[in-house]
Input
Amino acid sequence: MSGNPRGRMAGPVFLAVLLTTLLAAGAIGFVGGVAASPTAPPPVAHPIATAASPPLTGSITGPTVLGYNATQFYAINAAGGPAYSPSGVMIGNITYYITLGATNLTKVSMSPTKGALINSTAQFSSLTVSNVSETVTIHVMISSVYLDNNQSINLTYDVLIVKPYTLTVTITAGPNSTILSFLINIYLDGSYAGDYKVPTLTPGEVYTINWAYASAPLSAGSHMFTLAIPTADKGLVTFPNGQGSYSYSFYITGPAPDYTLWIVLGVVAFAAAAFISLILVGGRRRNRGRS
Output
């Protein structure tokens, strides 16, 4: 094929120059990009601090003294820990577990021994005791759980088991009408000690009150129980004395006297007398030997 040689060479030369220019421009851009890139490491992100859950707290409430063979309810409650959000909203679970401790646990029990506590609402468990004078300790382990977070606390509550003071007295309903159920107020040495619920009485009915009072040992000396019929029923119901109140006195003896000091003093006095006697006898014998 004929033609101008210069024309035939112009096309390849132009393409070569164009490719070289493009490659050079790319290299310059790459180097510029590398030079412009930051050499310092990227900033480290720090976690945002969050408020802690409220502390886990719990309580046991109920009588601290029970009489023989009594059954009584005790309230268990708790709040806080991981089961609660920082704002105080319950988001997890709180569970309580009960065990008992005593010298003699025969016929001593508590039910239920496990339960859930929701939104600071107390749960009740009943303690039944025997006729043994001792101290029963209620042990409660409370666990607050949310996801993998778990926190627990241990609570103890002592209950003294005693032989109760007993009071027996009769009341008589009037002959004219039925007396609906009412409460008799009972006082010990002038202080409120409790109530006794009298059932509905028919006209002329004689009813016997048997009341047991569990208390820590009373001080030595005279004491008095006083029973009082409510104002609304006075005159309609009477005690054996024909009145609307009745008092019963009793005496608590003190502890047995401690003779230990007197025994010690007696032994010392006897030893001193014996020692003096020996000295006198020895002196007399020496005097006889000289005469």
In short: The first strand starts at residue 57 and ends at 61.
